[in-house]
Amino acid sequence: MALKEYGDYDAVGLAELVRRKQVTPGELLDEAIARTEALDPKLNAVVVRHDDYAKAQIDKGLPDGPFTGVPFLLKDLDLLAGTRTTFGASLYKDFVAPHSGTLAGRFLASGVTIFGKSASPEFGLMPTTESRLHGPTRNPWNLDHSSGGSSGGAAAAVAARILPVAHASDGGGSIRIPASCCGVFGLKPTRARNPIGPDRGEGWGGFACGHVVSISVRDSAAMLDALHGPEPSSPYVAPPPERPFAQEVGRDPGRLRIAFTDQSTYGDAIDPEIAAAVRDTAKMLEGLGHHVEQRAPKLPADPAEVIATIVACNTGLTVKLAEQAMGRAMTVRDFETLTLASAANAGRASGIDYCAAQLAAFQISRTVSDFFADIDVFLSPTLCLPPLRIGELDTMASDLSGISPLLRRYIPGTSLFNMSGQPAMSVPLAWTAGGLPIGMMFAGRYGDEATLLRLASQLEQQRPWKNRRPPVCA
């Protein structure tokens, strides 16, 4: 392989070249590093570099896994022993992980070479990646716009073909939002499909999970095969798959019953281009032989209020633990204004408030799950506005009152499937007239990634996105 063709391959394809000895892991790593150095000054997607770690992996000998030799980035929220993880926070800019997370260990076992960490907002709290510590991560399709969040660095790096697949995580949409912003594929798995220990039993009340964003559907499926399964401390266990997820790619999905909406979760009108893209996608699905009808679940509680309470209380604990470790109160020198304000909100909430939010999340979950009694898939827009401009969400502002209303308009629907634990994916099926990607969100029944992967593979064939490159690659 001529290395100039590197960007034409997905991760499965690169691993196959390594197996055939047409390229070495060292050559792939060198190419990923060269692309990072050429493109990242524009993007700011790779905020922690440890090239020597990846080179030492190769020197030691890589395991024989499905992705042996493929360059990889961890999100800057997860631990890899002996390397820096900053969580996007000033306080932790020099923090070195004493051990690795279970998920990081499974990535290593898959054979990837981990040469750095991708950008995240502070503690993954925002759907845009613009931490004070590292600065904004820009969208490869238009540098004035956000790459999304909280896995914004991962999505930007994959879209720019620095690498074909990267770690991402999702507690309220943080895989799907940046996948939509950057025009890549992003699957949020079923709750507990992939491990999040050993330091956490569950994230954000069971909402959070880890996986990847990728160029191709088959990369996501093959990585899910490498990652899934409980660990000894797992509080939940996802239903076992019928067959390897990679075998779902290319399999006929059959005639699916698909419901869709071109409105927000609250029944409000959304950006006209995005609404039109949803209707166009529904028409395409009908043309593929699926049964398509327009309807959406009616929710018993406000998901924005539910997730705000649960995230605030978790953030409050993060701040409290930092104060205990440092022996002093945290200030704006340590954490962003939004983080401290969220922790303060948690301080004003009672245990009853937290339990009420969890009950409301369960009620939403039950309603959404019941909605799937007579459908297989639900289609809705991943985002209800185009990717935000850099600076629209200011986490250091003295007045934060505008953030919640904007989030309500921007991402009203992604958190529903974190609450229900159902798998959901953003598929890059449309672009605005201005050239920004539009992701379509598809959700499936609990434990049924198989149907989503079959459908995504069908859509990938019908409307390919892999060879569409952002301007930053020119």
What does this structure look like?
The protein has 474 residues and is of the alpha+beta class. It has helices at residues 11-19, 25-43, 51-60, 102-109, 152-159, 176-182, 217-227, 272-287, 303-326, 337-348, 351-371, 403-410, 416-420, 449-462, and strands at 46-49, 71-75, 113-118, 130-131, 135-136, 138-139, 142-146, 165-170, 185-188, 209-214, 257-260, 291-294, 377-381, 424-431, 437-444. The strands form 4 sheets. It has an 8-stranded mixed β-sheet with strand order 8-10-9-14-15-13-11-12, with helices on both faces. The protein has a 3-stranded mixed β-sheet with strand order 1-3-2. A two-stranded antiparallel sheet has the order 4-5. Strand 11, helix 8 (272-287) and strand 12 (291-294) form a beta-alpha-beta unit. Helix 2 (25-43) runs antiparallel to helix 3 (51-60). It is globular. The model has no long low-confidence stretch (mean pLDDT 97).
Report, as a whole number of angstroms, the end-to-end distance: 21 Å
Largest sheet: 8 strands, mixed
Our Rg estimate from Cα atoms comes to 21 Å
Determine the mean pLDDT. Answer: 97
| Total beta-strand segments | 15
Q: What percentage of residues falls in helices of 4 or more residues? A: 25-40%
> Given the C-alpha coordinates, what overall shape results?
globular
Read across the widest sheet, the strand sequence of neighbours is 8-10-9-14-15-13-11-12
- Contiguous runs where pLDDT drops below 50 for at least 5 residues: none
**What order do the helices and strands follow?**
HHEHEHEEEEEHEHEEHEHEHHHEHHEEH
**From the helix content, strand content and strand pairing, which structural class follows?**
alpha+beta
Strand content: 5-15%
Number of H/I helices: 14
